[in-house]
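My current task is to audit a protein record that another person submitted. Alongside the sequence sits a line of tokens, each denoting a local backbone shape. Where you disagree with what is written, explain briefly why. This is what I was given:
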Amino acid sequence: MTPQQKKAIQHLLSGSSIRGGCKKVGISHQTYYRWREDSGFRKELDRLSNDACREIVHVLKRHAAEAARHLVGLMRTGDPVLKRRVCNDILTHTLKFEENKDLENRVRALEELAERKK
């Protein structure tokens, strides 16, 4: 990868849009899409993008308990509209969590079955 490509990746990952990131680096968005065809550039962009996502998820997980406590605290509000929204949020998130756990368990069971059949 060229130094310009390495610089582009950093700006593309920190920018709000591809066009904005390209503008900061001084390349056209067509150049970016051409670079995306290069497997080395694409792999590095994907790797760094995945690293950034993992860091974001890590930060969110560290603050999830505090966010949950605040959300539960809002259930004590005197505003019935807000209270309904908060209750709905809590139920929706809880159900989604349980659904994801169930899917994870089912995928794991299928993977184990496929591994045993090998």
Remarks:
- The chain has two domains: 1-62, 77-118.
- The chain has a mean pLDDT of 92.
- Residues 1-62 form one domain.
- The two ends are 39 Å apart (CA to CA).
